[in-house]
Amino acid sequence: MSRFIARLIPAGALAVSVGYALLLALSVGAHAQTMTRFPSVGTPSDTLSIHAATDLYALAPLIQDFQKLAPGTTVEILEYVTNDLFSAAARACHERRPLGDVLLSSSVDQLVKLANDGCAQRVDGPNLPRAPRWANWRDEVFGFTFEPIVMVYNRDSVPAADVPRTHLELAELLRREADRYRGRVGTYDVRLSGIGYLLAFNDARQTTTTYGRLLESLGRAQVVVRCCTSEILDEVAAGRLLIGYNMLGSYAYERVRRGQPIGIIMPADYTLVLSRGAMVPAHSPNPALAARFVDYLLSERGQSVGRSQSFFFGLDGAAPPGIEGPDVVTSGIARPIAVGPTLLAVQDAARRKRFLEDWSQSMIQTAP
Amino acid sequence: MARREPSLFVRLFALMSLVLVFGAAVLMTAAWYSARQAADEAYDRLLLGAAYQIADAIQVQEGQPEIALPVSAFELLALSDRDRIFYRVLDPAGRTMTGYESLADPAAGAAAPGKALVENATFDGEVVRVARVSRRFDDPQMRGEAVVVVAQTVEARQALARDLTFRSFILVGVMGAIAIGGTIFAVRRALAPISRLEAAIRQRDPLDLTLVSVSTPRELAPFVAEINGFIERLRGRVELMQQFIADAAHQLRTPLAALEGQVDLLSNDDVTPEGRKHLDRIRVRTGQLSRLANQLLSHAMVAHRERAVARSPVDLTELTRRALDEAIPDTLERDILVTLHAPPDPLIVSGDPVNLAEAIKNIVDNALRHGAPARITVRLSRRGDRAVVEVEDDGPGIPVAQWARVVQRFGAPSSDGKGSGLGLSITAEVAAAHGGALSFVEKGAFGFVVVLSLTIQGREFV
């Protein structure tokens, strides 16, 4: 058994995850996993356990709608941040014990890594062929949402002239108005958040020069880093932060719908598009039910519930009203992050270590 | 009885099909093998390319090897988009820089460590294809070979091999169908001369002793030659036999004529009434014998001419007139009115004039000999594509029951001893040889009628 574990764990992964666990314990104790139970509608017959790095408010309508189709199913949701979900799933897989029936994570690179290491099982269902080609790997990892990565700002405090339209404009704004924005720009802490790392990595790949300047500007502006989109959105809405960078469009739009003074910008140079991933782990105790849920997420019905109540963008890219910036799909600036083995490069331990070192150097150490 | 063998067509078809099936099996095996090779070659290049890209990304920084895995290497590998990817990068000291620690270096301890290689292996319980490349560092702080091992599962190459094989199978199948169809066509064409020969022989008249003249391929020539040889021998035999009958009949005639003369001489002498009675009997029998000899001769001639004489246009009216002249002897004891009714236009048939004349003479002779007290009427007419010769007499006629027999050789020798039983059979033979027939009309208001109908333009006479 121990030989098997040693064989499967990539070099360095252990050391890195130990390091994260430490960081986690120190800084984000508040985000330890919590469990929410959705009791069955009818006579309880089975339980679907979902381990998710997705906000509960977004998941709840989907769960409730799914329970109308499967009235006997009790659904348990365990919430994680992406990195915790990944390390827990990897550990469970290596020890060959179950960890939930479905994993949902916006950090699809981590799901792809799990699938590559043989920790996923193949899912069959009538609606699965609806997933676009870039959102399905090996019929094991499915992208079921279409989420533009946006910049947000506080409508009350940021003058219209300051609102950046592109990544470069943001870098220049922070340089030009350094005093005003110092300490008032928020983004992911890529060391804690898998999705933050995935987005930063893709930013770096899109334009090396712009990314370098942006990183430098963010560092100078003493950027505030957080584990999660929602925390930054809270602070932007409250006016403590003025600008949030690399936020998930769906979460931001949900705030707008709730009437918070948040403006959303789809960057006009390029807009990364993330597809939240779903996967059934290899040792799932209820693979058939799990497959049914994944199939539901991709079904017409599940997509429609997701579009109207949870994620607001369809897999076809249709955007809700009230978003600044061009239509990402028709204007061709969308850069979908394909669910596929290319993401393994993102997950390479050595590469990640080096990227995080560079990032930390720019972001944290330039801060006084 | 000879055992019934399967037909040539079945034999050829079965053998060709066997060859085709065997060929198709060989081709399909070859297609499957080469499809696997092709798929392996295509994907091995990607695998090696990715490994080289990764090796190229190794850098030495401050004496330490560093690796930033290039995304493009994974994009290359992602071209086989369903396959899992495992990799491992080792620094010159043999320490794992990144990747899967348990992925073995396939060339570890090999004689030529610098060589790139691709081979099959298993990893994590799955069949994988492993590529291994190395990169030599001669940096003052770092010397030796860094090694990159990249492994990928084989779903895509298997799918490609399956796809290629399937397409080849379709091609082989189509080729096979064409070949089978072609075989059926070719075998039928090749065997056609046999059917032609068979038809030519089957359609022959049993009396036809001419040579078979169907053109045949070389392979069939011996059979045709053999058949023709047989026909020639048979014809020789038949001719010899008829010649013998003719010679015998001819030889008999002279002594018979002498005998008749002697009998005539005798009758004038004084003979007892008893003796005269015997003498008359001898005279009748002698006449009968001489007629028989004549008719045997005539029959032999008719048979000979049927085979040997080419047909020519014959004016039936003229021919009938002459035949009547010859048939009715000047020495007839009684007065008989013979009339000939002919159409104004000449009635031309294609045939042998001598045989036709012989046939008509025989009918008239028959009428004279068996009755016809006072009248013989001959009518020529044309009915459609037939020329008809009707000979009517006022004699008693032939009873219906005997019609079938009188046309056979010696079928109905007349009871009164006047006929030989050959006359009408000769006529019937001539009629048949001219595509016609001999028939009778029962004695009615007019008299007994013998009808000889001939084809004017039979297919052989055109």
Secondary structure blueprint with pairings:
The complex is a heterodimer of chains A (368) and B (462).
Chain A: H1 2-8, H2 13-27, E1 34-38, E2 46-53, H3 56-69, E3 73-79, H4 82-94, E4 102-105, H5 108-116, E5 136-137, E6 141-143, E7 147-154, H6 167-176, H7 178-181, E8 185-188, H8 194-206, H9 208-220, E9 224-226, H10 229-238, E10 243-248, H11 249-257, E11 262-265, E12 271-274, E13 277-279, H12 287-298, H13 300-310, E14 334-336, H14 343-347, H15 349-363
Parallel strand pairs in A: 2-3, 2-4, 8-9, 8-10, 12-14
Antiparallel strand pairs in A: 1-3, 4-13, 5-6, 6-13, 7-10, 7-11, 7-12
Chain B: H1 8-56, E1 58-61, E2 64-67, H2 71-77, E3 85-90, E4 96-99, E5 117-123, E6 126-139, E7 142-153, H3 155-202, H4 221-268, H5 273-308, E8 312-315, H6 316-327, E9 337-341, E10 348-351, H7 353-369, E11 375-383, E12 386-393, H8 403-406, H9 423-433, E13 437-441, E14 448-455
Parallel strand pairs in B: 9-11
Antiparallel strand pairs in B: 1-2, 3-4, 3-7, 5-6, 6-7, 8-10, 11-12, 12-14, 13-14
Helix pairs in contact in B: 1-2, 1-3, 4-5, 5-9, 6-7, 7-9
Keywords (chain A): Signal
Protein name (chain A): Iron(III) transport system substrate-binding protein
Pfam families (chain A): SBP_bac_11
Distance between the termini of chain B: 43 Å
Total of DSSP H or I helical runs spanning 4+ residues of chain B: 9
- Share in helix of chain A: 40-55%
Task: Using the coordinates shown, work out and report the CATH topology of the largest domain in chain A.
Answer: D-Maltodextrin-Binding Protein, domain 2
The named CATH superfamily of the largest domain in chain A: Periplasmic binding protein-like II
How are the strands of the largest sheet of chain B arranged? 4-3-7-6-5
Briefly, what CATH class of the largest domain in chain B?
Alpha Beta
Number of domains of chain A: 2
Query: Main sheet of chain B?
Result: 5 strands, antiparallel
The residue-averaged pLDDT of chain A reads: 84
Gyration radius over CA of chain B: 51 Å
Taking pLDDT < 50 over at least 5 consecutive residues as the criterion, the unreliable ranges of chain B are: 458-462
Low-confidence stretches of chain A: 1-31
- What is the general shape of chain B? rod-shaped
> Which fold name corresponds to the CATH topology of the largest domain in chain B?
Beta-Lactamase
**What's the SSE pattern of chain B?**
HEEHEEEEEHHHEHEEHEEHHEE
Number of strands of chain B: 14
Query: What is the share of helical residues of chain B?
Result: 40-55%
